Every structure is written in C-alpha cells, then in structure tokens.
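input
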Amino acid sequence: MQHQPSLDYARELDQQDELRSMRDNFIIPVHNGKEQTYLLGNSLGLQPKSARNYIDKILQQWSDYGVEGFFLGDDPWMNYHDHLINPLSTIAGCLPHELSIMNQLTVNLHLMLVSFYRPAGRKRKILCEKKAFPSDQYTFETYVKHLGLDPDDIIMELGPREGEHIIRLEDICQTIEENKDEIALVFWGGLNYYTGQLFDMATMTRVAHESNILIGFDLAHAAGNVELKLHEWDMDFACWCSYKYLNSGPGAVGAVFINEKHHKDPAVNRLAGWWGYDKATRFKMEKGFKPIPTAEGWQLSTPSLLLYACHRAALDQFELAGWNKILSKQKKLNAFLWELLNDLNTAQSEQVIEILTPAQERGCQVSLLMLKNGKVVYDGLIKKGIFVDWREPDVIRLAPVPLYNSFEEVWNFYSTMKELLRD
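output
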C-alpha cells in the first residue's frame, strides 16, 4: 500500500483506526498546555490512567487489613498473580503456567543462568549477540566469573558482517552448527535494542535444539511489541521487563517464561526462596525446598503488590484492545512511518538518513543512522515536543506504539524532521 505523505491522509487513517479511543486511557505528557508527541514506548511506556486506582486499592487493603490483606477483602493479595498470567500468556504466546511474574530483568537473567547454563567438558561456551544490551553483557561476564571461569574463554559473540548493521540468520545458524560441541547455551536478544532488528527465534531455537544446545532469549524489546509464540517455538526460557511496550511503570516487575518440560526436571538447578515453595504446604515452614510445579517455582521473594497493581492496569489495556488488533495496528502505523521516512530521504539532495532497522524483521522501533547533523536534528525534535532518543554515536530511535500513538503523531514527526533537515 502506498501512503500519501499528507496530514489529511494521516487524519483519515486515524478516523479508520478502531483502536483510536485507547489513547484516552493513557496519560500523555503535556507542556505549556500542549500534548507532546511521545514516540518512546521502546524506552518507557506511558502511564495507564487506571494505575492509580489499582495502587489505591492495594493501599486501602493494607490500611484495612494489614498483613491479612493477603487473605481478606474482595481481592486477596495471595491470588494477585493469577490476574496477570492469563493476559500476559496471550501476549507471550505460551501457557499460563509457563509464566512467573517476578523480580526485574537482570535478576531474572542471573536466575535463568543458574538453571540453564550447564557447562560440561568441552561444552562450556555461551553464544550471544555482539554488543547486546548491557544487562545481558554484564550478566554473562559476572556470572561466568562467579563460576571461576574466564569470560574471554566462555562468551562467544557474533556480530554483523563487515560493513553491515544487522546480524544475518544464516550466520547465527552456521555458528551454532559449527560450534555445537563447545556451546552449552545460546542466549540472545529477541529484538536488538540498537538497530531494532527482530530475530527469527523459531529457527534459532530449532537449530540450537538439533545441536543439543539449550536456548533462551531476552525479550525486553519484544514483549508487548511483536507477536510471540514462545511455547510453540519450544525455546527453553525467556525473560523480559515490563516498563517498555508493556507500560507498567519505571522499575516495573519483570517476568520469565520457562518451558513446561523443565518444570519437574530434578536435574534443573535453581536458587530457591519461600515464595516459590509449594502453595499447599508453604505455611508449614518445613525444611527442604519443594517447588511449585510450574514456572512460579522459580519465584524467590514476596512480590511487591504495588508493582503488580501497575502491571495489572497495563495488561487490562491489552485485553481491552485485543492483542490481534494491537498487532494489526502496529503494522499499519509502522508502514506509514517507513513510507514517510523514504519520502524524507528522497526529498534531500543527498542521503541524510540510513535506516538501520531491517525492512521486514522489525517491530515498532525504527533506528535512524544520521549521516549529517544528527545531534542537531535530535535536539530540534526535543525542542518541538517530540520524544525520541539518541544513541551514541549518531542514531535516533523512535517507536510509535499502537495503544496510544496516532498516525497524525507519525506525520508530526515526519514534518518536523523535514523542517529541521531543510534548516
């Protein structure tokens, strides 16, 4: 479909958008009485208006019942996790009992290494993407050191070919197959935070398993952004945060997917805590850890009900909109952005923008390599009330998201960029 680069056309698309009313459920930043154009759902999603009500309800229960709030009232806290796993399992494409909503991302990364990094003999290496997000890099480095191993010997990084920006699927598969006798674990980002490249997780999982290698993914930039089929793809585990596309607030509670085939395997090590103990006998306080026979058995501590409340408010919005409708709008919104970006480039006397994000393998995010005056353009966007972000040395990232961004906002970004490049 060829989009017309006009404001009227953008407004026509908004009128046709069946999710346009969802925007009213979020708090849009305002400056000097004017709504800002917020295109940073890839960094921190906007606040659902209902979050405050859910938090107030937790505070009221605490006030009314004290610790008995876990068991009393209209919505006892002991059951709160159950409100979250069903809508999240739809987004993750998995069975509810394969999810545990707990901790934050980096804590969960470490916990998954305890369970799924099993060096033995020659099979000791961890294959990951080169220049992965620092959470992943630091986790690998420090966990390997904790085991008394040398990160330089253990961590195997794979990056793009010389002169390219994305990592080719064939290179990933070939690396796995050629090093299958040395790789113990493949641990990859499902969607690269810098380029916006979406990886073929299904194929990577199949190739890893054919080589007798466990595989897991960091889905921080994929969860709530792209279609996931974690159970069908049969990956061993995955972790993600909930403050980006899942709109659950700064420092939001994270989540893990653990394939059900690992739930009752006694060979799987784990770090344990009271909250992961068998629910029926938890309060007997007996010696010897007996895990809940689901992904919840990986929980450690009593969860923060205030974080759960924010997450619940956000997941409500996904249920209200419908996940399939969200994915459908995401594709339309992103296609419109790409059409405008291509028009932006052709309107210049020389190329000023290179799109790092692959044309097909992508989600909401688009990463723009600025070939000229990048920081000046970025500063100009911010001054105009357009929220995007800057990644050194010369990349602007933005991510129109379907729950609260409009086609007119995408047009506003395009027209402002056009003005700034002309200056």
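quick obs: The longest helix spans residues 323-346.
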